[in-house]
Amino acid sequence: MQVFYRSWDISTSPFFEEPVLAPLVSNGRDAMPSIEYMMGLGSRELIENTYCAENTFEVQPLMLNSFERGIVDFLPSLNVCQKILQIGSHNMASSPHERFLFSDFTELDPSLCVYTLKLDEILWPKQTLYTRHPITGDVTAHTAPYPELPSFVLSASPWMAAARIWGTRMTDHPVSDIRWVLVGTIPPEWFDVAPTRPNITTADVQLAKSLPITCAAPSPSQRHKKQPQRYPSSDDEPRSPKQTRRAKKTQKQSMDPRSMAKAICPTSHAPRTRAERRRAASVH
């Protein structure tokens, strides 16, 4: 029987500590509204609840920095990523009420998903890793290229695990296509949560036509030329073109510091010295 290790059963030290709780996708990421839209959530539902159960996992303190920098990730299985890509592509090409809610798909329940450890080929320093058996507690050392690393399970949603991986060196994996689907469309300013559809499966989801399932990564020169597609919105209405107004030209006048002070502050006209105050009093 295969044993699945927990997310906190791997470290860079053979001495394991109490795990710390961390979010898979942090609140500062610009793609957070797109992730919400892809998952069928409502506006700011994830932004205002970053530490929800679907977005948090436990990790060893020594591994936390590597996860936060994206050098280390838990990669969902190929089959799971393909299903997330299929549903997510449909949602990205649909209006808010035509999307599917990620939690309605029982086949993507966190308890059914298995992960492998993804290490950045360039940034990871290839140091020794240690795993702790979740039942016996035995510690095993693993050296690069880590041929015997175990499989892992996470309590978080595989949607969040897939959405956080932004590596560009996985062009042959659907997780790379998920990234381009996310960055290729601008969500509306506000959208409600998708309607619940119980007992739905990925077989019920039609493949999106406007967003291809296999996306070729644009070249650096094309990324700035191609404008991202906007999400279709149910309340989109044609707007009359705005009339441009020309700003009136003003002549720039130069003033000395004293004159400028008088123009800015009316109290600058008041007498400053004792002699000036006496002279002003005698006049009045």
**Chain-averaged pLDDT:** 80
Number of discrete domains: 1
Give the ordered list of helices and strands: EEEHEHEHEEEEHHEHEHH
Distance N terminus to C terminus? 104 Å
Could you say which structural class the secondary elements and strand pairing correspond to?
A: alpha/beta
Query: What kind of oligomer do you see?
Result: single chain
Biggest pleated sheet: 3 strands, antiparallel
Widest sheet, order of strands: 2-7-8
Based on Cα principal axes, name the global outline: elongated
Beta-strand portion reads 5-15%
Poorly predicted tracts of residues: 210-227, 231-272
Gyration radius over CA: 29 Å
Count of helical stretches: 8
Number of strands: 11
Helix content: 10-25%
Care to describe what's here?
- The structure is a single chain.
- With 284 residues, the chain is an alpha/beta fold.
- The chain is 24% helix and 13% strand.
- It contains eight helices and eleven strands.
- The strands form five sheets. Strands 2-7-8 form a three-stranded antiparallel sheet. The chain has a two-stranded parallel sheet with strand order 1-9.
- Helix 6 links the parallel strand 10 (185-186) and strand 11.
- The longest helix has 15 residues, at 78-92.
- It is elongated, with a radius of gyration of 29 Å.
- The relative contact order is 0.17.
